[in-house]
Amino acid sequence: MTEITVTGKCPKLISKEEIRAIVLSTITVMGYHGYYLKRPQEGVEVILGKMNLGKNKITEGNNAGVAWRGLGMFKVDLRKFRNKPGLTTILIHETIHLCANFSGSDEFIVSTLTDRLKESIIEIAEELASNTYKRAAYFAHSKKGMAYHRSEKDDCYNDEQWQNKKTTSGNKKQKGTK
Ligand SMILES: [Zn+2]
Questions:
Q1: Centre of ligand 1 from the C-alpha of residue 120, in Å
Q2: What residues does each domain of the chain span?
Q3: Where does 4-130 sit in CATH, by number?
Q4: Which of 6, 76, 106, 178 is the most exposed place for a label (fewest CB within 10 A)?
């Protein structure tokens, strides 16, 4: 799976956990549908800051974000964002660029997919981000000397894995489409 590195100053609007969750959820949704990072085995780098990212060829204004698919990296100019939904949108948009090259109308397709996929992406990201520390504690228990750790000769299966009967509800249930 892809490690997400966030460098630069994290804005007050959003936490680093949320940024990682949104980027990874976007990669997940794209990958589920067959659109992959160029080098999935390597990490993705998100660089945030107040920086000039050059002129946009379409709008002729300054770029708010720029992605390099070959490098698995994108940059965001934080001066362009005053609210969290806007920042969320650029994170999804630039991550989609990392996962696919479309036709000559790349920007129209990427911005349209950003809108259409946002609901699914945010639902996954919300779960990832909101339970970060609960799950981190479970992983901490797996370390040597901690609750989940057994010596090799005492290894066994934990039948608790079968107790919670939670499962998926099928792929026919559609939420509102637009
Ligand atoms: Zn774009």
A1: 20
A2: 4-130
A3: 3.30.2010.10
A4: 178
